[in-house]
Amino acid sequence: MTNKNYVFWFATGSQDLYGDECLANVASHSKIMVEQINQAGLLPFKLEWKPTLIDSVSIRRLFNEANEDDNCAGVITWMHTFSPAKSWIKGLQEYRKPLLHLHTQFNQEIPYDSIDMDFMNENQSAHGDREYGHIVSRMGIERKIIVGHWSDETVQKRIGSWMRTAIGIVESSHIRVLRIADNMRNVAVTEGDKVEAQIKFGWEIDAYPVNDIVEYVNAVSESDINLLVEEYYSRYDILLEGREEKEFRSHVAIQAGIELGFERFLKEKNYHAIVTHFDDLGGLKQLPGLAIQRLMEKGYGFGGEGDWKTAAMVRLMKVMTADIKDAKGSSFMEDYTYNLVPGKEGILQAHMLEVCPTVADGPIQVKVNPLSMGNRQDPARLVFTSKTGPAIATSLIDLGNRFRLIINDVDCKKVEKPMPKLPVATAFWTPMPNLQVGAEAWILAGGAHHTAFSYDLSAEQMGDWAAAMGIEAVYIDKDTNIRTLKNELLWNSLAYR
Q: How far apart are CA 253 and CA 232, in angstroms?
């Protein structure tokens, strides 16, 4: 999905005060750590060992080499011995990629019977990392700090988790969003400062007339359409629901043409996310439904009604979760309606058509049903219910003078009864800490009704991404209470203005 073989560099800090034997041990220990961490198989990307850094020249050279290496997605730093932090200033000033500070040491236990001053001098991360941490904080550089023994499974998993955030940070600057027409008229939350978004996140957001992409749709051959329709018929459950099969197939074929035409347009012009608007469909015969769902499944971002911020965030999630084993999926979502029965509270999530099938649990059906909006033919769509379990819902909003990322932990559940008359894909979740507090907190924070949603990412990962982008993050989780949140929002208004 990223088309890059990303690696992360492991850089160990030291100095030459304790002689060559000590430096040889430092290098040997670092190599062992990198080899064994890689062998453990808990990281999504490979660690690459780098020679020990002992002075400002070597430090500066390494960071600049990292900047120039397209495959390097970040640097992990660790001070084995004491490393005078002024030596790190210039390199840190010039470094532009994600940074992790691993606060660890080679040995796990104090060697009580043999410890001497030579050992103490060689294994000084307890204060070497504090010296280094001080200068990074003084310089105001954003970094991730992970503390614990390098062999610990929890530590390695946290490093792996941060790696996915780092990929999101690096890839954010590559995201290009295709806007088909414009935003839905008079809607506030789908608007935003596209110039500032490019400055902050690196996103390029471009608008095209809808009929530019319609030309690509119309150019798709009948044979290509038929092949894709056969794929639909073999992969999904076909629900005719009283329609003639030939007529049903013709509606499905239109979505196949849209999928192929849209994808060719996106690839040719190098876009990674797309937005549509039901009020501006030009020569399209249907509102893109099944077609958009399939494009999201392939890794493209999407936002309804021109919501380019959510489209970019969905793409970001797709990139960050690429190749996760047994991934549960990420998607565009929209808050629709509540269940307010005591003890059964939750929010039914859906959209007119466009929910990504990666989040589906159980069979996926193809249906053709009327749609009141758009004034076009009845569109085909994929219908399913989502998986259960913990997930996050995020909303990136433009407050006029800054961006804010709202991150809500949610618990996805099954609805109590089937909804046979609702011809769209759905999810049902209860926001943390509960519906009452969660919804109030969301509204206080200014959250939108559209979200970028993922089962496979954590609030910590998305918050780390926001920190790297220099924007405000607001967490709504099991610990949220309204009084504290109001104070947090007030303080943030001062800190981020």
A: 10
